[in-house]
Amino acid sequence: MIGVYITCANKKEASRISRLLLGKRLVGCTNIFPVESMFWWKGKISARNEFVIIAKSVEKKYNGIVSEVKKIHSYEIPCIIGIPEKANREYLEWIKGEVR
Question: Residue 20: which H helix or E strand, with range?
Protein backbone atom coordinates (compact mmCIF):
# COMPACT_ATOMS: atom_id res chain seq x y z
CA MET A 1 0.00 0.00 0.00
CA ILE A 2 1.07 3.58 -0.56
CA GLY A 3 -0.01 6.88 0.92
CA VAL A 4 0.36 9.85 -1.41
CA TYR A 5 0.87 13.23 0.25
CA ILE A 6 -0.20 16.15 -1.97
CA THR A 7 -0.24 19.82 -0.97
CA CYS A 8 -2.85 22.12 -2.53
CA ALA A 9 -3.47 25.86 -2.63
CA ASN A 10 -6.95 25.62 -1.14
CA LYS A 11 -9.74 23.23 -0.15
CA LYS A 12 -11.47 23.55 -3.52
CA GLU A 13 -8.34 22.37 -5.34
CA ALA A 14 -7.83 19.52 -2.85
CA SER A 15 -11.43 18.39 -3.37
CA ARG A 16 -11.11 18.64 -7.15
CA ILE A 17 -7.93 16.55 -7.19
CA SER A 18 -9.41 14.02 -4.77
CA ARG A 19 -12.52 13.59 -6.93
CA LEU A 20 -10.38 13.20 -10.06
CA LEU A 21 -8.21 10.49 -8.48
CA LEU A 22 -11.21 8.69 -7.03
CA GLY A 23 -13.13 8.93 -10.30
CA LYS A 24 -10.23 7.41 -12.23
CA ARG A 25 -9.96 4.65 -9.58
CA LEU A 26 -6.33 5.56 -8.93
CA VAL A 27 -7.01 5.81 -5.19
CA GLY A 28 -9.49 4.19 -2.85
CA CYS A 29 -9.75 6.98 -0.29
CA THR A 30 -8.52 10.50 0.41
CA ASN A 31 -8.32 12.66 3.52
CA ILE A 32 -8.04 16.44 3.34
CA PHE A 33 -6.43 18.50 6.11
CA PRO A 34 -5.69 22.22 6.55
CA VAL A 35 -2.00 22.92 7.24
CA GLU A 36 0.33 25.86 7.71
CA SER A 37 3.33 25.51 5.40
CA MET A 38 6.70 27.24 5.33
CA PHE A 39 9.18 26.68 2.50
CA TRP A 40 11.86 28.18 0.30
CA TRP A 41 10.49 29.55 -2.97
CA LYS A 42 12.50 31.55 -5.48
CA GLY A 43 15.15 32.58 -2.95
CA LYS A 44 12.79 33.59 -0.15
CA ILE A 45 11.12 31.87 2.77
CA SER A 46 7.39 31.72 2.12
CA ALA A 47 4.53 30.86 4.44
CA ARG A 48 0.96 30.06 3.51
CA ASN A 49 -2.06 28.10 4.51
CA GLU A 50 -2.56 25.05 2.33
CA PHE A 51 -4.61 21.87 2.27
CA VAL A 52 -3.02 18.44 2.21
CA ILE A 53 -4.47 15.36 0.58
CA ILE A 54 -3.44 11.98 1.90
CA ALA A 55 -4.55 9.51 -0.76
CA LYS A 56 -4.49 5.75 -0.20
CA SER A 57 -3.60 3.51 -3.10
CA VAL A 58 -1.25 0.78 -4.27
CA GLU A 59 2.34 1.27 -5.42
CA LYS A 60 1.65 0.43 -9.07
CA LYS A 61 -0.74 3.42 -9.34
CA TYR A 62 1.77 6.03 -8.12
CA ASN A 63 2.98 7.16 -11.57
CA GLY A 64 -0.61 7.53 -12.77
CA ILE A 65 -1.48 9.59 -9.70
CA VAL A 66 1.49 11.90 -10.32
CA SER A 67 0.56 12.31 -13.97
CA GLU A 68 -3.09 13.15 -13.26
CA VAL A 69 -2.30 15.57 -10.43
CA LYS A 70 0.23 17.47 -12.56
CA LYS A 71 -2.38 17.97 -15.29
CA ILE A 72 -4.70 20.03 -13.07
CA HIS A 73 -2.61 21.28 -10.12
CA SER A 74 -2.20 25.04 -9.79
CA TYR A 75 1.39 24.90 -8.51
CA GLU A 76 4.37 25.20 -10.83
CA ILE A 77 6.02 22.39 -8.84
CA PRO A 78 3.40 20.42 -6.89
CA CYS A 79 4.41 18.32 -3.89
CA ILE A 80 3.41 14.70 -4.61
CA ILE A 81 5.15 12.29 -2.24
CA GLY A 82 4.58 8.53 -2.24
CA ILE A 83 5.01 6.96 1.19
CA PRO A 84 5.05 3.16 1.54
CA GLU A 85 2.61 2.13 4.25
CA LYS A 86 1.48 -0.94 6.11
CA ALA A 87 -2.21 -1.46 6.74
CA ASN A 88 -4.39 -4.01 8.44
CA ARG A 89 -5.29 -6.84 6.07
CA GLU A 90 -8.98 -5.91 5.76
CA TYR A 91 -8.26 -2.29 4.89
CA LEU A 92 -5.57 -3.23 2.39
CA GLU A 93 -7.93 -5.66 0.67
CA TRP A 94 -10.61 -2.95 0.52
CA ILE A 95 -8.15 -0.47 -1.07
CA LYS A 96 -7.05 -3.08 -3.60
CA GLY A 97 -10.69 -3.72 -4.46
CA GLU A 98 -11.43 -0.05 -5.06
CA VAL A 99 -8.32 0.77 -7.10
CA ARG A 100 -8.40 -0.49 -10.69
Answer: helix 11-23
Integer CA distances (angstroms), 18 to 7, 42, 73, in order: 12, 28, 11
pLDDT, tens digit, for every residue of 8-47? Answer: 999 999 999 999 999 999 999 999 999 999 999 999 999 9
Give the start-end residues of each E strand in 42-100.
44-57, 80-84
Backbone angles phi, psi at 11, to 5 degrees: -65, -35
Range of the domain at 72: 2-98
Residues 96, 6, 35, 40: is their CA dihedral positive or negative? positive
Q: What is the residue type of 52?
A: V
Give me the amino acid identity at 60: K
Nearest to 73 by CA among 2, 29, 3, 10: 10
Assign residue 71 the CATH number of its domain. 3.30.70.120
